[in-house]
Queue: 2 jobs
Job 1
Amino acid sequence: MEYDEDLASNPFLKFFQENFTILYEEAVKNQWILCIPLANTVCHDQLDEFYIRQHIIMQVGEESRTLTNELVEISEDRLRVGSISVRILFQETIYTKLGRIKAFCINKEDPKISNIKSPTILQKKSIRDSIRTVKTALTHYLKADQNFAMPEKLNDCLVEVKNYISSLDRRISSCVVCNLYTQLMDLITIQASKADANLNKIRKNNYNTTLEDLNLPEQFQPSLAIALPELEKLPDQKLVADKLDCLRKSVTLLTKTDVPADLDADNLLALFSYLILKSQVTNWTAQLEFIKLFHTSSLLGEDGYLISTLEAVLDHLKQGSFDNMHSFPKVVPEMPLLRAASLGNTEALTELLYSSKFECHPLCSCRSCGLPRVVDALGSDSKGWTALHYATYYGHSDATQVLLRTHFRDQVQIADPQGRTALHWAAYRGFQTCLLLLCHQPGCDLNCRDCQGNTALHLAVLNGHEPCVKALLYYSEQAHFRLDYDAVNCNGDTAMHLAARWGYTNIVQLLLQWEVDCRIFNKHKQTAADVAQNVKISQLISKFSDTEEKRNLRERLGSSRFWTGLTRQLSLKRRPIQSS
């Protein structure tokens, strides 16, 4: 026998028996086949329930399938699952107290699953040399362009690294990429920062999209709930193969639904769009570029399909497919004034608010005039929204102006159940004109917080609305209003935290001009530089913080009290000791 191994001590089998007892008993009872990877190819980071189920074969009619429902072709010495082919080293029957079970010891020759943790001595030397070569290229670039100001140099650097890595043996190249993952991903994220910032703005502005908006049945909700955590693991993976495995698992989990129809291409695109919208990953474009840049094998087959799917989803989002989704109300309010405000119908608003046919007053509801009650100006619907909420949410500046000419100007601080005023919604949706109209009202509080502790500045920054951020900053300066730039929400995040996390470089630079405090820690003990989406933003903030600290020190040094105290301390230290 060419290969021999004691399967009883195999780490895969031991992990299976110790952590998934019920599943193991079921496998023995049903006489399923275990596919046990060779001991020195088992990566403990991969061991989870999904990975275990991928390695169990059951008979379904005349077909053999894994417990993840993948078709398996079994020949004398080979197993083929999709585009992956593995070698059967030997077959063995494992006897336990529960009974016996058939097992294949397999060697995963596919480069995606090759063992990169136990290379030979020659491979170790090659890996060290390759890492040194790539590090030299990265260091040379960083010295040449310390401020990341020249995109063409960054692109040339990445192309050089990509060409070098692609010339290496796949196993060695995987080790190089794994060891230098942080540096490589940092540079790719900077290169894709503008595209990711635009994508993040689209995602945040459409975060409340529902399955109904995407014309998908609610039966998909359970599948999406388990697929989302799997997809969000993708940025934590250092190897392209592992990132693709996250995509593969997500697609598999999406099929676990009670919807009778098959998961066709249109449904898959919509479902993945939904997952990307709801995820907290801030650099999807960079993740895709990393996969495409360092994918060492042909793009044909399942890997090519997964990459194309992710690319299609991101393009679908970037093309503004959701731009008009929330532009008009899906359900028009019944109350006449709310209906007119939500549709921006200024004529109807004027008629309702100023009509001369009312004998007593424009909003008559008394019996003396003999007319039915038309509207209650301060009334709200089941959402707790007034006419002013509707007008500003849908960006109807003319309608907002009509309302603010009446006693609505004294009601701008009315909040909905989320604690959001009309100003909050104008900032959240990015309607600068509506926001400025509200700011000019005497009773408008720019520092008002919603139930999550967000101010209007928080919401404008979160959704990437640079014009609204400028409007709030400039208005507060011109009106001599103390806007709290450093306000923290319930997560302890300032507006700078949000701008840095979602990669809004222009907003970060704008806030730095207003000298916000970048040293504030959120509830996770992180500053804005700590949560920055890319190194360039982190560097901008850190430089500003250093400058701010130096300025504070200069102010302290310029203080006469400071000098007096310092002089006294020095004189005490230098005073000679009296002999007894």
Note: The chain has a mean pLDDT of 83.
Job 2
Amino acid sequence: MGKSQKPALALVCLLLGVSLVGCDDGRAGAENAAKQLASAIEALDVGSVAFEGKDSGAANEQLKAVFKDLEPARPSVDAGEVRLESDLATVPLDYSWKIGTGEWKYTTSAQLKKSGDKWLTVWNPATLAPGLTEDEIIGASTQAPARADILGAGDVPLVTSRLVVNVGIDKSLLSPEDVGSSATALALLVGADPAAYAQQVQAAGAEAFITAIVLRQDGRTVTEGQIAAIPGARAIPDSMPLAPTRTFARALLGSVSEASAEQIEGSGGALKPGDSTGTGGLQQRYDAQLRGTDGVEVFAETPGLTVEEQEALPNGPRRLLFQVPARAGTPLKTTLDPSLQLLAEGVLAKIGPASAIVALRPSTGAVLAAASGPGSNGYDTALLGQYAPGSIFKIVDSLAMIRNGMTPDSMVDCPPTLTVDGRTFKNAEGYPASSLGSVILRDAFAHSCNTAFINARETVGQPQLESAATALGIAVPAPSLGAAAFLGSVPGTATGTEHAASMIGQGKVLLSPLAAAVMAGSVAKGDVLSPQLVLNPDAGVEAPAGGSSATASVPAAPQTATPSGSPTETGATPTSSADAPATAAGPPVTAAEAAALADMMRAVVTSGHAGFLASVPGAPVGAKTGTAEFGTDNPPKTHAWIVAVHGDLAVAVFVEDGGFGATTSGPLLAEFLTAAG
């Protein structure tokens, strides 16, 4: 009975005095059955649905088998308008699936048959997916796009796909009694732990290939012949996203590897087993941008067929139902100069303690090199280190003093010692006696007179120090950098010995090597410098949860400096970036102020501690050395610092347990500047 007959039927029922329920054309029952079917399919459980021609349990098992490859996705299913024809009803079912980044929508038709006072669903696999036959199931496959590159200055590839070989044991080529000896021999060849690798190989399946090491194809010393000489050993060619060398900016860039269970669980469905993802550094921070999105194909196929049977099918083994094309990742553009980065890493290669070299271009703020030495043990000392800066902080002191009306030629008092609230401060060992007493500020700066700058505490309050620091681009966030970084912490309030210690870059004053380079770069620029590393932080994708924004929290530093109790200087305890002010506390450094600071930095080379930089070719070098005590040893250990400007280049060199800035970090700086040209 058609829909147009329903009002007439209702009128007849009323005239006869019969209830509508008793005189129902069956539509209500059919509609209820259709809704129940849609809800059951949506839940992927039709065990409660009554079928015509199929046991409910068997239908439920078949449904689960049909959609198994799409797990954990579930469809949204809506029943459309029921069409009645006597004891038969037809209802459209509108499906919607979230598949990858796409939405698979389709409509099928379900048939209902009235049996007594019940409506049964006529079993038909095509109700589940378009054209599905009794023997078919739904399959799905993903196609991962190639990971995008990380680029350096001038869009030179830094991290790109490079040829590698997976060296390992193929157990299918060995008898059980030979597995242990082959695994041990291969581990010894490639430098892996023999016992651990042999155990791993023994525990793997009989047909497994177990990788011992992944070697770069370019320049590898383990040869094909050496590998082939070991029974069961193989070298399988592959490619991986890699930097130019194993150590190249590793702490900054991060690495790429197969996603761990923890990463998959925390990805909100973005990662699945077998996916590659970034770990640490920029690779992790911009993983979504670099990874792109997988392509997905959904198809109908008949499982269990032999290769011959699949080839005999007229339309092939798979019938495509839905497709989401893969979207390639977007390359991440950075300012890193590969030659300067390699140079910085080479200069630090033999330094035992944690160390760093950061080089910036003052005119643009571009970070050209951010190298952390081998002693940093994988930590990004260059950008995240938190250390007392010692006397390089006298650049900040000097700006505050200039803002109080002084000039490089103003007279200051530099006594051998100075007592503040019962605590005695003195100058560093070897301070020239000729620069004691009443000297000009330029001379006190060039020879790094601690007592002269501590004496200035009477006219330079702690808030002025903080203001001068922010005027030089430090102790503030780094919103344009595009990477996690620490730009320093300078307390806005301090009195007594704490304020005195701040005047010589100790107490609670902290800088990173990046911050030190920014401070020097602001002098060279004649304006506050805002460092930039990532040029397209928002390209390609929305920011992933947890951070692809330009600012980030700063991890705790791996070392903690504690007050030394030294009469010369005190140490400091690292603090988080939350201690830095959100905005600059004072106006940026002016060109005139920067010129005065540059004059004093040049004096460090012409008449002070850094005379060894006078021979650096090219533009005149200006510098400031720094030594900061830390720890509880007696005598205390010291951080060695030096910052310099050289044309359109600002550089900071840091060695954590390095003695004096002039004697340890200074020669490293000279080597870097000379080679940089």
Note: Residues 27-42 form the longest helix (16 residues).
